[in-house]
């Protein structure tokens, strides 16, 4: 489905959250930045206080270490959940009728689990790609090609 006029576009990864509004129409996308936010990535020493834990073995020598928690991934997941909360707030204010989401696979999976039902209903395109560091014309070209391909496959 082509991206309609005034559709909201979210470009997201574990560190950046960019909101764009389509000021063009279904034939010519014209994205303009509406809001952006970036989180600072904390150092390991700021996130951890101890080393990994260990468990006792029933046989053999040594004490194997338990898998260490990935604090960076936890921080990224929380950031993506904040984006879902922002979308919920916007949809309940009736800020958009159509939504396109561009995010890498891991962020997209976390986001999908956190979306409000009304936000899910308004999604017109989901693109599984890292684009948060790319210029706006690249994002517009990606959305145009993906929505055109989806429209062709629907026929």
Explained architecture:
- The protein has 155 residues and is an alpha/beta fold.
- The chain has a single domain (8-40, 71-154), classed as eRF1 domain 2 (Nucleotidyltransferase, domain 5), CATH 3.30.420.60.
- Helices cover 39% and strands 20% of the residues.
- Helix 2 packs across helix 3 (105-114).
- The termini are close together.
- The model has no long low-confidence stretch (mean pLDDT 85).
Write the layout of secondary structure elements.
Layout: E1 8-12, E2 16-22, E3 31-38, H1 44-47, H2 71-92, E4 99-103, H3 105-114, H4 117-121, E5 123-128, H5 136-154
Parallel strand pairs: 1-4, 4-5
Antiparallel strand pairs: 1-2, 2-3
Helix pairs in contact: 2-3
Search tags:
single chain, 155 residues, Nucleotidyltransferase, domain 5, five-stranded mixed sheet
Please, how many helices?
5
Order of helices and strands: EEEHHEHHEH
| CATH top-level class | Alpha Beta
Q: Count the beta strands.
A: 5
Helix content: 25-40%
Largest sheet: 5 strands, mixed
Q: CATH superfamily, called what?
A: eRF1 domain 2
| Global shape | globular
The whole-number mean of residue pLDDT values reads: 85
Quick recap of the structure?
By secondary structure, this protein is of the alpha/beta class. Helix content is 39%, strand content 20%.
């Amino acid at each position: 489905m082509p991206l309609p006029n005034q559709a909201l576009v979210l470009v997201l990864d574990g560190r950046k959250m960019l909101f764009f509004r389509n000021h063009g129409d279904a034939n010519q996308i014209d994205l303009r930045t509406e809001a952006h936010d970036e989180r600072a990535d904390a150092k390991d020493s700021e996130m951890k206080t101890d080393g990994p834990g260990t468990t006792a073995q029933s046989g053999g020598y040594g004490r194997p270490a338990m898998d260490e928690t990935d604090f960076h991934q936890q921080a990224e997941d929380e950031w993506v959940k904040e984006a879902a909360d922002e979308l919920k707030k916007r949809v309940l204010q009736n800020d958009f009728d159509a939504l396109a989401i561009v995010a890498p696979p891991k962020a997209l999976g976390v986001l999908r689990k956190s979306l409000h039902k009304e936000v899910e209903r308004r999604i017109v395109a989901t693109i599984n790609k890292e684009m948060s560091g790319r210029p706006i014309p690249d994002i517009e070209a990606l959305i145009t090609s993906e929505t055109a391909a989806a429209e062709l496959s629907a026929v």
